[in-house]
Specification:
Oligomer: single chain
Radius of gyration: 28 Å
Number of domains: 3
Structural class: alpha/beta
Length: 484
């Protein structure tokens, strides 16, 4: 039963704060520790002093204030990230941090109180001791529970490594040990296969950089670590260009400073400093906000447009024989194939399932009703169902058909780094579309501009930008320019 539960929720996500489940888990931990602080205060009031203290209501207000303040201080102090949560009891400095934070809160509250004598100093002392003990027991319980799950194979943080050299084995020893059973190196990769050993610490070297990209796309992977000499700047940049297509964090393990990465984030992974050379888009709370936006707006638009769905379905059936919906394979998040829904706008016997030939003005393959649907973009509105399925977003780079081409070249051939636009979910509307790059892409310039705007959207995402694009989309659709 436990195994089924863990596999369903994929508990490893709880330690990736960039995911929805990770945010939920951290929020639950914060709420639980706030309740622990509150219950400690109530326990000392009721059971230790039997409620026999003056200004009982004032003490209750103080309990609530300290509970909220303490959790806020813990959050600011980064005690709710993965490493801090897992190692809080193992590392003395985290324990000292908890004690120091708790003592500081009590001390500040007492000094700032208008009437210090209004509070029982004995009660404050006992409450502080009980709170620290309770938090220590809670953190230790979480740590050992997670460690037990990891040892039994239920909690695995899978990472892959690129670069096989003298430091690779040392790094693997550091991250794969009894103190970190949830870390597992699942793949070793290097471009110089002829000069590298077949195995490192018993793990085989399985391929080059291209095979690493395929591996991450086909398997669940938490992070990619690049272990290369820091003077190999050209090689690092070449590797970065290929790895930037992946929607996972990529970290470089540095030994000396590099000027080109001077402003990049440095983090410690099991005591080893790593430099983040590429960041995951929509990190931290942005992912949760985007998730909520898609689900809520997707449901809203599906319900709002239900009469339109019914009317268009009837009109399609009257206009020409065939199904109401047209389903087409397209590239989605992380270059994975998804099936995108559209209202059928072509005659069934002339439909181009792979989009090998772009639709042009007055295209004879398009039905009379289909021409109107395409001009008004109403053929795209079934994609709100893709949003509810979690395959698409309301706003994002538009998904392209597998065989779509410009001037005889596939998009991924015509545009270097084309797949970088797949680092986020495709959208029903997008930044490129509201800036005039909508419709036929018969030239390389048009697809280049589309991709340029798509990448710009990914790098500068904000909730305001999404709502601005949604607002602009209404006027772009009404203009009906470049759509046929």
């Amino acid at each position: 039963m436990l195994k089924k539960f863990l596999s369903y929720f994929n508990i490893i996500k709880y330690f990736n704060c960039n995911t929805v489940s990770g945010k939920v888990a951290i929020s639950c931990l914060m709420a639980m520790e706030g309740i622990i602080v509150w219950l400690s205060g109530m326990f000392t009031c009721v059971f230790v002093f039997h409620g026999d203290i003056d200004n009982y209501l004032t003490h209750q207000l103080l309990i609530m204030l300290v509970s909220l303040s303490l959790i806020g201080l813990f959050y600011i102090s980064n005690l709710y990230d993965f490493n801090s949560t897992a190692d809080a009891i193992e590392k003395d400095k985290k324990m000292v941090g908890i004690l120091r934070s708790t003592t500081l809160i009590f001390f500040v509250v007492m000094l700032c109180s208008f009437n210090v004598s209004a509070f029982s100093q004995q009660w404050l002392l006992v409450w502080g001791i009980v709170t620290v003990i309770a938090l220590c027991v809670e953190r230790a319980s979480i740590y050992y529970f997670l460690k037990l799950l990891a040892v039994n194979g239920h909690l695995i943080r899978q990472i892959v490594i690129f670069g096989v050299n003298g430091f690779t084995g040392e790094f693997m020893d550091a991250v794969q040990n009894d103190k970190s059973p949830w870390v597992k190196v699942t793949g070793l990769f290097d471009d110089r296969l002829g000069r590298t050993p077949a195995t490192v610490n018993g793990s085989p070297v399985v391929g080059n950089i291209d095979e690493l990209v395929r591996y991450v796309r086909d398997n669940r992977c938490y992070e990619v670590f690049v272990i290369l000499p820091l003077d190999a700047r050209a090689r690092i940049e070449e590797i970065s260009m290929k790895l930037k297509l992946l929607p996972v964090p990529v970290r470089l393990i540095p030994s000396v400073s590099m000027s080109s990465y001077v402003n990049n984030k440095v983090e410690y992974f099991n005591g080893i400093p790593t430099l983040e050379i590429l960041n995951k888009p929509l990190s931290d709370w942005e992912y949760l906000i985007k998730f909520a936006e898609d689900r809520l707006l997707g449901l809203f638009f599906c319900v709002l447009l239900l009469p339109v769905y019914l009317l268009i379905s009837i009109m399609i059936k009257i206009d020409s024989p065939g199904p109401v919906f047209f389903k087409q394979k397209r590239y989605g998040y992380n270059n994975r194939l998804i099936e995108v829904y559209k209202f059928r706008s072509m005659y069934v016997n002339q439909a181009d399932i792979d989009a090998k030939k772009l639709v042009t003005r007055d295209d004879p393959r398009v039905t009379r009703l289909g021409a109107f649907l395409r001009r008004s973009s109403l053929d795209e509105i079934p994609q709100f169902f893709n949003v509810l399925k979690g395959e698409m977003s309301i706003v994002g780079p538009r998904p392209h058909a597998l065989s779509a081409s410009a001037e005889g070249k596939l998009y991924e051939v015509a545009v270097a780094g084309y797949a970088e636009r797949h680092k986020v979910k495709p959208g029903v509307t997008g930044w490129a579309q509201v800036n005039g790059w909508r419709g036929e892409t018969d030239t390389e310039e048009k697809i280049l501009k589309r991709v340029e705007y798509d990448i710009d959207y990914i790098k500068n995402w904000s909730l305001f930008l999404d709502f601005f694009i949604i607002f602009r989309t209404v006027f772009v659709v009404l203009n009906q320019k470049n759509a046929y």
